[in-house]
Amino acid sequence: MHNKTLAELSKGLSNKTFSSEELTRHFLDRIKTLDADVNSFITVTEQQALAQAKAADAKIANNEASALTGIPLAHKDIFCTEGIKTSCGSKMLDNFIPPYNATVIEKFNQVGAVSLGKTNMDEFAMGSSNESSFYGAVKNPWNTDCVPGGSSGGSAAAVAAQLAPASTGTDTGGSIRQPAALCGITGLKPTYGRVSRYGMIAFASSLDQGGPMTRSAEDAALMLNVMAGFDSKDSTSIDKAVPDYTATLNEDLSGLTIGLPKEYFGEGLTPAIEQAVQAAIKEYESMGASVKEISLPNTDLAVPCYYIIAPSEASANLSRFDGVRYGYRCENPEDLQDLYTRTREEGFGEEVKRRILVGTYALSAGFYDAYYRKAQQIRRLIKHDFVAAFKDVDIIMGPTVPNTAFALGEKSNDPISMYLEDIYTISTNLAGLPGMSIPAGLVDGKPAGLQLTGNYFAEAKLLNVAHQFQQATDWHQQIPVTKAEG
After folding, report:
1. Residue 417: what pLDDT?
2. DSSP labels for 427-479?
3. Over the stretch 287-327, which tens digit does the pLDDT of each residue have?
4. What are the pLDDT digits (tens) for 194-247?
5. Does the pLDDT at position 394 exceed 80?
6. pLDDT class of 485 with cuts at 50, 70, 90
7. Residue 41: which H helix or E strand, with range?
8. Is 155 a catalytic residue?
């Protein structure tokens, strides 16, 4: 059953080939057997999952089911879940039990999906390797000596290892697409505001966006059908009608114009990754698409721009974690100042503290204009680059990341090198555009990702373009063999 896509599982449940309870037990057993090698879950909610599965079976029996009723899913541990620990991968929230559900969680509950548990992640979503988690590093199922990418590395690894058929993730600067590329799965970051951020613990509020992590584009469309939509509880949510993302998956690609940014194919890109991307482009040309070279001239400014804006917003958002209201609190503080200082010193990891310090500095008097305001001006220039490009092309393509998965610990002491892993993904977040990564080959036995970027609210077109590629190739069907299975 774990070899099936969401669409296949939905059909099997509808046809009574198996029950949701049988399906859920199957995935829970796989987690128990295999996750010790991967460390993709922080919390497994076995009792709740089985109760939800029984309720889903009753819905199916009464012909009240929708596409994802009875389907087991995993959720990144950044989405608040009522009565279940939501840690954000941090010691600071190791004891936090939310009294409410995030809107995304509530939407899946309403359609009768089953929650297997909460997946591991870089602490407060800050990282590109999933090594900064309080609960230990996640391992890449393709090679457990390598990172899965971050910050949604637990979600990506769980789907790649077939411990869950799909998972939710979040993307602030590439945190869905980058681990999707390194783990050989499909990951979609929707347009900013398309998916509610209510109950999604904030890292950088103007950049964070939730999205699906799946094996195929068709599965991502099924997930996004549930996740997308206006939410009055989220002030950044966009009140715009949601289409059926599965309805246009099979549209012909004749006449599609693909833009290839010349800035994405230069120094720093591994030649084998470039070859895989160029082979994918050739496949698109055989399907009737045309290719045009474009320029996104401010691409080289994206990383420094992002690492001013994101830490600045993190500095403000994480000020709430002070040991007073909830979360970790230091023992026996001498006074209020000591409570604040030691709680934050002991509760946050090194990467989180680094970004808080950078952000606080950038926002401080005397430096705000020189750094934060300037970064916001550059952000506008980056957005204008994309607006101009989409006047001539329908989709922008390129590599998702410059390399395949690197070794655990290889870049832990080199934050600049780590930050550059997101060089192709960050611009999409700064502009608020939808982006997607799909498997496009294997390089030395490790996955290579192709990134698709669309115009605002063009998720349906992205999914269509990705689905057509996956109908013509089988890279998304390649599966790693875990140690316990192999």
Report:
1. 85
2. HHHHHT--EEEEEEEEETTEEEEEEEE-STT-HHHHHHHHHHHHHH--GGG--
3. 999 999 999 999 999 999 999 999 999 999 999 999 998 99
4. 999 999 999 999 999 999 999 999 999 999 999 999 999 999 999 999 999 999
5. yes
6. low
7. strand 41-44
8. no
Tell me whether residue 483 is one of the annotated catalytic residues: no
Phi, psi of 286 (to 5 degrees): -70, -20
Q: Please say whether the beta carbons of 91 and 343 come within 8 A.
A: no
The predicted structure's pLDDT at residue 482: 60
Is residue 358 pLDDT above 90, yes or no? yes
Cβ count within 10 A of residue 249: 20
pTM: predicted TM-score of the whole model, two decimal places: 0.96
Residue 337: how many other CB atoms lie within 10 Å:
9
The H or E element spanning position 321 is none
What is the amino acid identity at position 157?
Answer: A
* Catalytic residue (one of 155, 175, 196, 312): 175
Measured distance CA(226)–CA(110) in Å, rounded: 9
**Rounded Cα–Cα distance for residues 343 and 351 (Å):** 16
Contact by Cβ (8 Å): 189, 168: no
Set 10, 19, 76, 411: catalytic member: 76
Distance of CA 292 to CAs 261, 268, 395, 397, 417, Å?
9, 22, 10, 10, 31
Q: What is the mean pLDDT of residues 358-383?
A: 94
Q: What single-letter DSSP state applies at residue 372?
A: I
pLDDT of residue 484 exceeding 60, the answer is: no
Whether omega before 151 lies within 30 degrees of 0, making that bond cis, reads yes
Q: Which residue has the tokens 């046809």?
A: 15
The pair phi, psi for residue 145, each rounded to 5°, is -90, 0
Distance CA 203, CA 206 (A): 9
The Cα–Cα gap between 257 and 260 comes to 10
Look up 461 and say whether it is catalytic: no
Q: What is the structure's pLDDT at 150? A: 93
Look at residue 481 in the predicted model and tell me its pLDDT.
76
What is the C-alpha to C-alpha distance for residues 402 and 195, in angstroms, rounded to an integer? 28
Catalytic residue among 19, 151, 237, 315: 151
318 closest CA partner among 100, 87, 92, 79: 92
Report the C-alpha gap between 266 and 26 in whole angstroms.
45
Q: Which residue do the tokens 């590093």 mark? A: 137
Under 8 Å between Cβ of 465 and 452: yes
